[in-house]
Design brief:
Elements: E1 2-4, E2 13-16, E3 23-26, E4 40-44, E5 56-60, E6 78-80, E7 87-88, E8 91-93, E9 98-102, E10 108-112, H1 119-129, E11 135-142, E12 148-154, E13 162-168, H2 176-188, H3 194-202, E14 203-208, H4 213-218, H5 243-255, E15 259-266, E16 273-275, H6 285-301, H7 324-331, E17 335-342, H8 358-375
Parallel strand pairs: 3-5, 13-14, 13-15, 15-17
Antiparallel strand pairs: 1-4, 2-3, 4-10, 5-9, 6-7, 6-10, 8-9, 11-12, 12-14, 16-17
This protein binds zinc ion (ZN).
């Protein structure tokens, strides 16, 4: 058989494929970084086995040294034959190696940490959106690998309108974040959708569907082309290390921000949740009231969202100011949330065949738009 990662967002190192029942693999580190967790590879079965339904057992032998070892507990990898529908496959973790087992029913099968969102699909999203009369596709500048930093500006500018910013995939392996934006943008541009139309009367949206295109194409988990974690760059970004953040931050300073959502995935927790700004210096009673209202609304909108489990609350004044949500929430004194979705499943509403998925991420993005709609008149 043959295993390869030579494609967009591929990541695997082949150690030994001599025995289908004992395939040895490793995940590669992000370039110039210690982080690794994202994997994405293709398995081509031997024609001789066609019709024999041979089980393939793949051991990722360095999983126990990955960035988030707790991410492998109760985790099931995803696979796809058609690169559209991704289903969960039997996966075990023994503390050192992650073992994925599948008896392929077709010649070729893809495996990944989560349903990939390719660079080509990213371009499709941007270019479909730009054809809407209320949408502009802007290029803010280039990444270190020379890719465009693309921004969708949705909604006509007018006096008194609010500026809502949404960014996704600062951590490129968190592909659910771009699936979320895919759903949100699709709804926002639907002229038959009342929530979208009402929002566009009051808001200009600034949306960066992919904050880290270099990391995405390179098959990174967490960093850009030079191993920099973009979500630790917001206090002092530079064109040399973190042009992605520098360019977006400059644009934010030009437009102002009334609300900010930064979309991520969490390796360990099997729920959707948000993390806010309680630890930033400028946090006050008004800021807390906005956060509490938004969470209450999201809980009312969808059973996919909850607020019982999440990250610990930051101590007053102790928030890391280099994190996007903290920097934006503090600088603009606005409602700012990091949204986290699971790699595993939402265990409040489990789906054993697909787990938390591309489709569910897109639907959650659509639902968050309803949440934004309910907040607009409170933002200033
Ligand atoms: Zn993240």
């Amino acid at each position: 058989m043959q295993i390869t990662d030579k494609f967009d967002s591929g990541n695997i190192r082949v150690i030994d494929t001599s025995d289908a029942a004992n395939i040895q693999l490793e995940i590669k580190h992000d370039h110039q970084s210690e982080f690794f967790q994202w994997f994405h590879f293709k398995l081509q079965t031997d024609p001789i086995n066609r019709g024999e339904a041979q089980e393939h057992v793949m051991h990722i032998t360095n999983a126990g040294k990955s960035a988030y070892v707790k991410g492998w507990l109760d985790y099931q990898a995803v696979a796809s034959y058609d690169r559209e529908h991704w289903f969960r496959v039997p996966t075990q973790f023994d503390g050192e190696k992650l073992t994925i087992s599948l008896t392929p029913i077709y010649d070729s099968v893809y495996f990944a940490y989560f349903a990939p969102y390719s660079y080509e699909r990213h371009q499709d999203l941007l270019h479909n959106a730009q054809m809407h009369p209320d949408c502009q596709l802007q290029v803010l500048g280039q990444t270190l690998d020379g890719r465009d930093m693309s921004l969708l500006k949705i909604g006509a500018e007018a006096e008194g309108k609010r500026s809502v910013w949404i960014t996704a995939r600062q951590h490129p392996g968190e592909t659910m974040a771009e699936w979320f934006v895919d759903g949100l943008v699709g709804r926002l541009l639907d002229e038959d959708d009342g929530v979208a139309r009402a929002l566009l009367n009051k808001v200009v949206f600034y949306i960066v569907p992919n904050m880290n295109p270099d990391g995405g194409v390179r098959g990174h988990l967490r960093t850009n082309a030079v191993g920099v974690n973009l979500n630790r760059e917001w206090l002092e970004p530079s064109m040399a290390r973190s042009p992605e953040v520098f360019l977006v931050r400059e644009k934010m300073l030009a437009t102002g921000v009334d609300m900010f959502l930064d979309v991520h995935g969490d390796e360990a927790l099997p729920v959707n949740f948000v993390a806010g700004c309680e630890g930033v210096v400028a946090y006050d009673a008004r800021h807390k009231a906005l956060e509490d209202k938004f969470k209450k609304i999201m809980i009312a909108i969808t059973p996919e969202f909850q607020d019982d489990r999440g990250y610990g609350k930051g101590a007053p004044g102790k928030a890391n100011p280099t994190v996007a949500t903290h920097w934006v929430g503090n600088h603009f004194r606005c409602l700012a949330y990091t949204i986290e979705m699971p790699f595993k499943d939402n265990d409040l509403l489990p789906d054993y065949s697909v787990g938390w998925s591309d489709e569910r991420s897109s639907l959650l993005g659509r639902d968050f738009l309803t949440g934004v709609y309910h907040m607009i008149d409170d933002l200033r």
